[in-house]
Design goal:
Elements (H helix, E strand, L loop, with lengths): L1 H17 L4 E4 L6 H9 L4 E4 L3 H15 L3 E5 L3 H4 L2 H10 L3 E7 L25 E4 L10 H13 L5 E7 L29 H11 L4 E5 L6 H11 L3 E3 L15 E2 L2 H4 L10 E5 L6 H9 L3 E5 L14 E3 L3 H11 L10 H4 L10 H12 L4 E5 L3 H9 L7 E5 L9 H10 L6 E6 H6 L11 E7 L17 H6 L6 H7 L4 E3 L5 H11 L2 E7 L2 H18 L2
Parallel strand pairs: 1-2, 1-3, 3-4, 4-6, 5-6, 7-8, 7-10, 8-9, 10-11, 11-12, 13-14, 13-15, 15-16, 16-18, 17-18
Helix pairs in contact: 1-2, 1-6, 3-5, 3-15, 7-11, 8-11, 13-14, 13-19
Amino acid sequence: MSDLNFQWASRLIGGLAAAGAAHAVISPGARSTPLALACLRHPELITRVLLDERGAAFYALGLAKASDRAVILVATSGSAIANWHPAVVEAARAAVPLILLSADRPPEHLGCGANQTTAQIGMFGPHLRALHALPPPTASSSWLDSLAARAMEQAAGPPAGPVQINLPLPEPLVPQDDIAPPQTALVRVRAGRLRLEPAEIAEVARRLEGGKGIIVCGASPVPAVPIAQLAAALDVPVIADPLSGLRFGPHDRSRVVADGDLVFRGRGLAEADWVLRFGAFPVSRPVGEALGHFTGEQLVVAEAGDWPDPVRRATHVFRAEAGGFAAGLADAVRVAAAPGWCAGWTSVRPPGPALPPEAVVIRGLLAALPENGLLFSGNSMAIRDLDAFSGLSAKSLTVAANRGVSGIDGAVSTCLGMAASGRFSGTIGVIGDLTFLHDLGGLAARGPDAVLCVLDNGGGAIFGHLPQAGLPEFEIGWRTPQGADLAAAAAVWGIPFAVVSPDHVEAAVAQALAAKGTRILVIPLDAADSLARYRAVWNFWRKECP
């Protein structure tokens, strides 16, 4: 039986690799031995072993985000795969492809009190794109080639997401002989893109052209060039989320608004005739609230996935690929908006009060990143700092974050997973101190060239911006100052560590990037001072920039 286990595992892994999987992330365990061995012995798979299943899952998520192809994730039976759950939820909402290979006990061990067993079928509920519950291995395994290709297709979508293959493996688990992996048949899969008919595109063009419109690109990447071409044809502004991919790069950015979070604190959408939205919902709360209050035509383009209208204001929903939709619409538009409409959104901003030090940090990080670099942002305040203060640049950069469910878990692991893809010329992660502490186990993935910048404001500073700040229990229930020794945490994993002031971030990060390897820079911040400066900036925009 041990030889059958390995033959099945090898056939399955070989089929996944033939279908396009290039990376596997495994965590040690006995029941998963055949699957782990098949990964480690496959000549074309790059396999990383990480002890903690939770961190391993977010690391795989980062690899998949960066490579845009499914990553294999392997763990043993029982509570091990339960630790995948947060990353599975994020992958489902953020449309990131993963192949979850969960080793299981054979059926006769289930439901009878056997050790290290739980209900692995259904554990991830609606968050899977597909679930394949396999039987115990038998002599027939050639059909696994087709299953592997099918699973990779399901993970690729649209929408992309996690697919689980649950494989019950009876003992013995270590193969008795040095078995050569079976030959795998290649199953070629080709998928098209969702596009509207030319007549439908022309109808949308007639609806939008000549109007005072706004394009909003939210918290997921969209093709920059066709969106910029569409904005030029209509001569309308583009409110660009930091994760949209529109703030950075050589495309035409003359109509891109990077400070929507500030602009919409003093200005709504009442003057606009229509809004055309691409991608996920924006990070910025003021932008989101403006979309929720807008009563004109609101057109949403989303290729697949959940109903793309959390504010319930959409008048038209188009299931189409964003780049093709925008390019076709740009070609069909004949009349631009009235002169002055776009310039009223993109003109030079008036000077305001002194910005919080987080603005200096964000701009220093972006300046230090080389061309084709990655800035990975944690959630909570880090992504909001980035949204408010990144500005625009001709430098080609990738900006990423886990905004599927916007949790603070797994940020270190995801960042290091993205860095390990080899796609980027340099990687910087910017995360809060609580986000860092939440994923200390992720530091086990050290090794990739990446600089982790920790904004140390002494706890949950974001709650100072929220109504909870007025509660008498605020300090202990929400602010939660930890007083942890961050340097000691870095020392556990032997990662170089330094404390840097905001004014010296750019030089320190540039030096750390040049030094290679994984490094940690902690940037101390005064939360009360930052909050006061934030409020002064917001009040200025509310009063002076209607």
